[in-house]
Amino acid sequence: MKKILIISLLLISSPLFSGHHAKGEMSNAEIVKKAYATFGSGDIEGWKKLHADDLKFTIFGDLPQSGVHYGADAVIKNVFDVIAVHWPAFNLKNMNIDTVGDTVYVLNYMTAEGLDTYALHMFTLEDGKIKSFTAFDDTDSMRSSMIE
Questions:
Q1: CB within 8 A of 26, min separation 6: which ones?
Q2: In the sheet that 51-59 helps form, which strands lie side by side, from edge to edge?
């Protein structure tokens, strides 16, 4: 019985089950937080390094940046550059971050000129890189605040 208890305690305290990682290795939530930080500061090269080469970036709705974009360069051109034009002073503030397996969910407070709403973003990570991103944004508020 003592052996079972000791083995159970060792398993529970292992990095696989506890959410802790080897020294210097970021958790999935930390990688996602860093992606928001690099995006917010305009560090495009830093942002690109956090994403897999075959990144799939999905934005629902009927907005200029909507669609499925593959690869970091396509996201920068078809999403980030478009957001800067249509929503000056665009900002995301992480309100809550939850991790379930390799998926990270982030509730964001989203603001820009004339925009004041919330968005839910879903990230899937693989081998320490963001493999996919899906935005569940308030497209109606975004559309009504969009600068043409």
A1: 34, 128
A2: 67-70, 51-59, 129-137, 115-126, 103-112, 91-100
Supply angle C-alpha 21, 2, 19, rounded to 5: 15
pTM of the model: 0.83
Q: Is 122 helix (H, G, I), strand (E, B) or coil?
A: strand
Strand blocks (E) in 71-114: 91-100, 103-112
Cβ–Cβ < 8 Å for 56, 75: no
23-145: CATH topology: Nuclear Transport Factor 2; Chain: A, (3.10.450)
* Residue 82 backbone phi and psi in degrees, to 5: -70, -40
**pLDDT tens digits along 78-118:** 999 999 999 999 999 999 999 999 999 999 999 999 999 99
* Interval 4-43: pLDDT, tens: 444 444 444 444 444 445 556 899 999 999 999 999 999 9
